[in-house]
Specification:
Radius of gyration: 21 Å
Number of strands: 2
Structural class: mainly alpha
Mean pLDDT: 81
Largest sheet: 2 strands, antiparallel
Shape: flat
Strand content: under 5%
């Protein structure tokens, strides 16, 4: 019985993790996959460190025996961890909230709601950053 309860909690944990990932991905898509510039700088530094670590490894190292693709994947591992850490710990949402100074009135309650500055083509827009108004809970089209 104890194992069944533990497995049920693992299943519930998986469902919560998947729903959180879907919500994060939806917000990230609404902001047109925006990340602050300093994260890209940190990831570039991570890529340099990863490439230097692959280059500095000896010829008989296990990573060198697996070929070029393994070396490239190892060099890309550190930037991937930097991006994942920033996104999964909520940094993307906080950075967007701090940088988003434009707001538009909610069509239902007229309270200000954060809006995106530009759409995918780069033209100014009044598309809302959130899909639901935080004040009146109406869903935006």
């Amino acid at each position: 019985m104890g194992k069944d309860v533990f497995n049920d909690f693992r299943f519930l944990e998986g469902i919560l993790l998947m729903s959180g990932a879907v919500g994060c991905l939806m917000f990230w898509a609404r902001t047109h996959f925006w990340l602050p510039k300093y994260i890209h700088v940190l990831a570039a530094i991570g890529l340099i460190v990863g490439a230097l670590s692959v280059w500095a490894s000896p010829a008989d190292a296990p990573i060198k025996q697996h070929g070029l693709i393994a070396c490239v994947l190892l060099a890309l591992a550190l930037p991937a961890m930097i991006y994942a850490y920033f996104i999964l710990h909520g940094g993307q949402r906080v950075a967007f909230d701090r940088s988003s100074s434009q707001s538009a009135p909610c069509p239902f309650c007229r309270n200000p709601v954060k809006a995106l500055r530009y759409d995918v083509q780069g033209t100014p827009t009044t598309q809302f950053a959130e899909s639901v108004c935080p004040h009146c809970s109406h869903t935006f089209a």
